[in-house]
Each structure stands twice: as C-alpha cells, then as structure tokens.
Amino acid sequence: MGVSIKGILFGLVAIPVCVILLWSNEGRAVTTANSLKEGAAAVVAVAADKVDAANDKKLVHVSGEAKTEAEIEDPDFDLSVPALQLIRHIEIYQWVPRSA
C-alpha cells in the first residue's frame, strides 16, 4: 500500500514538472521559428566578386566558387594538390589476442 501511495505522489509531482518543461521547450521552438522567419525576410543576396558598402550591417547571402592556387601537401602519402583544405580521417582496428 505504501508503494502505491509513493507512486501516486510521484505522479502528482511529475505531471506539473513535465507540463512546465514542455511549455518552456515549445516557447523556445516558437521563438526560434520566428527568428528564422524574420531572418529569411531580411536577407539580401549579393554577388561574391565585389563588396558593396550599401550592404553594411545587413544580413547577406553570398554564393560563389572557392578556389586557390596554393598547393596543400601530405608528406606521409606523398600527395600535393591545389585545394583549400586536406582532411585525413584514420581508423585503426587491432586484433587483441587473449588466452583463456
């Protein structure tokens, strides 16, 4: 009987806490959605080849090709390519023998 009463009391405390957390989360979601909508309405698309002082302190969208003449080298693999960045992702698997 005592376990049942404890469960009921826990439920009575948990329900208001869950409602408050859900209300807070939904409020943040609405604020984020409104901010994104406001930003989408205020964005200005500009060309990437020149800077226009009229767009100072505005939200701008720039699209263009990123290119470079510099060469990036990887001495471990004897590799040299014209690129902006070279990323090496390595995974090593090792067999660990164990005796019974």
Explain what you see.
- The protein is of the alpha+beta class and 100 residues long.
- It has a domain of 63 residues.
- It is built from one helix and four strands, in the order αββββ.
- The protein has a two-stranded parallel ribbon with strand order 1-2.
- Strand 3 and strand 4 form a beta hairpin.
- The longest helix is centred in the first third of the chain and has 41 residues.
- The two termini are 51 Å apart.
- 0% of the residues are buried.
- The model has no long low-confidence stretch (mean pLDDT 91).
Blueprint (SSEs and pairs):
Blueprint: H1 2-42, E1 44-46, E2 60-62, E3 71-74, E4 79-82
Parallel strand pairs: 1-2
Antiparallel strand pairs: 3-4
Brief sketch in words of this structure:
With 100 residues, this protein is an alpha+beta fold.
Terminus-to-terminus distance: 51 Å
N-to-C SSE string, H for helix and E for strand = HEEEE
Rg for CA atoms: 29 Å
What is the β-strand count? 4
- How many helices? The count is 1
Query: What is the SS-derived class?
Result: alpha+beta
Major sheet attributes: 2 strands, parallel
Proportion of strand residues: 5-15%
Mean pLDDT over the full residue set: 91
Query: What would the principal axes of the Cα set say about the shape?
Result: flat
Unreliable residue runs: none
Strand order of the largest sheet: 1-2
In percent, how helical is the residue content? 40-55%
